[in-house]
Amino acid sequence: MASSASGPPIVSLRGIGKTFGNGTVAIDGLDLDVRGGEFVSLLGPSGCGKSTALRILAGLSEPSRGHVAWRVSHAPRDVGFVFQEPTLMPWATVFANVFLPLKLAGEDRAAAAPRIEATLARVGLADFAQAYPRELSGGMRMRVSIARALVTQPRVLLMDEPFAALDEITRFKLNDDLLALWRELRMTVVFVTHSVFESVYLSERIVVMSPRPGRIASELAVDTPVRDTQFRTSADYAAVCRRASEALAIAMAGERTPA
Q1: pLDDT value for 76
Q2: I need a surface site. Which of 27, 96, 162, 205 has the fewest CB within 10 A?
Q3: Eight-state DSSP code of residue 49
Q4: Rounded to the nearest 5°, which phi and psi values hold at 63?
Q5: Which carries the bigger pLDDT value, residue 78 or residue 127?
Q6: Does a cis peptide bond (omega within 30 degrees of 0) precede residue 101?
C-alpha cells in the first residue's frame, strides 16, 4: 500500500476554533491538511472534538474561528459522510435508503438503479435491495449507510466512528472491506476513532488529538504495504500500536510528542 501522504493537500483546516452556544470550546487552533487519496484517522479520547472537526470539514457545521480551504473544486456530492449510527429510514427499503441522496439531487430512480445496484454489490448487499432496516444486522445496516455515502461517487469519504457499536468480529470484517473499497475507488478517507488498534490497522497517517479543547498533538505515519490478518498479529503492528498509545497518553497529559 503506497502512501499518498507526500502529495499536495486537497483540503486544509487553518486556525479552526469551535465554541458552542453554551460556551463549551470544542476545538481551538486546529490545523490539518488532508491529502488526495490518503487514509487518515483522527484519534483521541471521547469529547476531544474529533467529530466536530469532521463536521466542519464536511460543511455540516461552521467554525467559530479559522477557515476551511479546498484546493480543488468540489460540490456537496463530492463529500460522503458516514455517521456513527446508520440513520436509515426504517420505513424504506435498502434500495430506497441508498437512493435518497440521488433523489435529493433530482436524479431519476430508474436511471439511478444500475448505480445503486452496483454500489450495493460493492458493499456485499446485492441480495438485500428490497429488505428493510429492521430485517438487517447492525453490520449490514452500517453497510447500507456506507453504500448511501458511496452512491454519489464522492472524492472524500468522512466517517465518524462508524464501527464503534459493533462486535469485534463484525468490526474486523468491515475494517477489511473498507480498506478494499478505499483501494478500489482511490478516494480520500478521514476516519474518526477512539480505538488505537483500529487507527493503526486502517490508516496511512494517524492524527492524535488532545482533550478538549481539541488540537493536534502529534502525527504518526503507518508505513506498511499490506493490511491483513497477518499484519494484525505482527510485531510491526504491535510496535505501531505502542507508539500510538504513547502519543495518545502524552496528548491526554497535555504534552507534545517529541519530534
Answers
A1: 66
A2: 96
A3: S
A4: -70, 150
A5: 127
A6: no
Residue 80 counted as domain residue: no
Are 144 and 196 contained in the same domain? no
Angstrom distance (rounded) from CA 256 to CA 247? 8
Q: What cell numbers appear for 14 in the block?
A: 487553518
Per-residue pLDDT of 112-124, as tens digits, reads 999 999 999 999 9
CA 151 to CA 94: how far, in whole Å?
13
> How much is the pLDDT for 75?
65
Is 79 among the domain residues? no
Locate 52 and state its grid cell: 466536530
Q: Any residues with CB less than 8 A from the CB of 90 and at least 6 apart, and which?
A: 132, 133, 134
Total Cβ atoms within 10 A of residue 22: 5
The total number of residues shown for the chain amounts to: 259
β-strand 156-160 against 79-82: which pairing, if any?
Answer: parallel
Question: Tens of pLDDT along 176-201?
Answer: 999 999 999 989 999 999 999 999 99
> Residues 171-204, buried b or exposed e (16+ Cβ, 10 A)?
bbebbbbbbebbeebebbbbbbbbbbbbbbbbbb
DSSP structure class, residue 210: P
Is residue 10 within 8 Å of residue 3, measured between CB atoms?
Answer: no
Domain boundary among 95, 127, 154: 154
Residue type, 16: I
Range of the domain at 113: 85-154
- Those residues whose C-beta lies under 8 Å from the C-beta of residue 147, and which sit 6 or more positions away, are 94, 98, 119, 120, 122, 123, 125
Question: Per the structure block, which three cell numbers stand in for 136?
Answer: 438487517
pLDDT confidence band for 227 (50 / 70 / 90) = confident
